[in-house]
Amino acid sequence: MGGSFAGDFPDVYIWQQDYDDLSFLKGLGMSNQENDLLSRRNAIKFGVASLSSVGMVAGAQAHKLGDSIQTPFVVAQTLIPIAGSDAEFPVRRVYCIGRNYAAHAREMGSDPTREPPFFFQKPADAIQFVAPNKLVDHPYPSLTKNYHYEVELVAALNKGGKNIPVEKALEHVFGYALGLDMTRRDLQRFMGDQKKPWEIGKSFDYSAPIGPIFRVSQIGHFTKGAISLSVNGIVKQKANLDQMIWSVAEQIAKLSEANELFPGDIIYSGTPENVGPVIRGDVIRCTIDNLPDLSIKIV
């Protein structure tokens, strides 16, 4: 049997099947040329099955867009409030860039003059919304004794694409927010020393606190501006956004070379130097010029 689920497209339920007859697609109003050029990506966009050249799973059908789909349970959609409106931003993927300020790269043992950008992901439900002018409880996670803060500018996309040119990259940005990339540093370092993936150090519940998203039409794009973080009133991180090694536009362009980007993707754009630990009872306050502060208490 040649069937499998298209697991890398979580928002669309697709059954991939081996089938060499494209005739049934004519009912969708597609020309022969379009049928011939049908790719897996287009199959998903049109809401039809992905095809290849051997046999067919009897009775297997893909859902068309607009169909009512029944599932055995409901998975909650992660949403971030949009400032100045009742609308909310639906999150598809959470991307993060590593070591994007030179001084931070050095404190993590890297050479910022030689390294190309690299990215990792957090699950969408790692998002913890933090409303402005509120002190929100943030749970100290399990399995760690060295829990670190990293303040970051976050870009939210409302347009997708593959191999996006740098000069057009900012056209894909819907808005910006202030965020924290919370990290179980001991687990990250231990897994790195073992030459194993360090996802467990970065991707866990509540590891991505974030404030409301402000539309570009409200605040413009961020190419410079002060970014800082304090713990219990003592400044720990302080830099300027123009000190990023890779700008937001460059991050979008480079990331789109590796993954096709889609509306709903957000990008944590890197943290300045002087990351460090917090313990229960500590209060973290984050600031970026022209965005409201973000404050959490570790509990």
Mean pLDDT: 83
The level 1 CATH classification of the largest domain is: Alpha Beta
Helical amount among residues, as a percent range? 10-25%
Strand-pairing-aware structural class: alpha+beta
How many domains comprise the coordinates? 2
Spatially, the strands of the biggest sheet line up as 6-5-17-10-11-14
Shape: globular
Tally of individual helices: 8
Oligomer: single chain
- Biggest sheet architecture: 6 strands, mixed
Head-to-tail CA distance between termini: 51 Å
What would you say the CATH architecture of the largest domain is? Alpha-Beta Complex
Low-pLDDT runs of 5+ residues are 1-60
Question: How do the SSEs run, as a string of H and E?
Answer: EEHHEEEHEEEEEHEEHHEEHEEHEEEE
Determine the CATH topology of the largest domain.
Answer: Fumarylacetoacetate hydrolase, domain 2
Mind telling me the CATH superfamily name of the largest domain?
Fumarylacetoacetase-like, C-terminal domain
User: Which radius of gyration do the C-alpha atoms yield?
Assistant: 22 Å
Query: What proportion of the residues form beta strands (DSSP E)?
Result: 25-35%
Number of strand elements: 20
